[in-house]
Specification:
Layout lengths: L2 E5 L5 E4 L1 H8 L6 E4 L8 E4 L10 E3 L1 H9 L12 E2 L1
Antiparallel strand pairs: 1-2, 1-6, 2-5, 3-4
């Protein structure tokens, strides 16, 4: 399973799943998802935007942005987002 860090180019950050992984792991009835960032034992709850199912299969939140920044992952060079598998 591979996911990518996502940025709107300004202040928006999130995790992009891609269409195939989105369709495999997510249910359209869900309004949010609980994520574990890094080795954290506590999850964060992130809302799922309507655009997740239409054009941008990424979940976005300020908490994800702060985690990227606090761990030295953001900002990244343009066109070179973090990838995790």
């Amino acid at each position: 399973m591979e996911v990518n860090a996502w940025s709107s180019g300004d202040s928006g950050y999130g995790i992009a799943f891609g269409n195939e992984l989105r369709d495999k792991l997510f249910d359209k009835a869900w309004e949010h998802v609980d994520l574990y960032l890094g080795a954290s034992k506590e999850s964060i709850r992130v809302g799922i935007a309507k655009s997740f199912w239409v054009k941008c299969p990424a979940v976005r939140s300020k908490t994800i942005k702060h985690w990227f920044e606090e761990n030295g992952f953001a900002p990244w060079p343009s066109g070179s987002p973090l990838t995790s598998s």
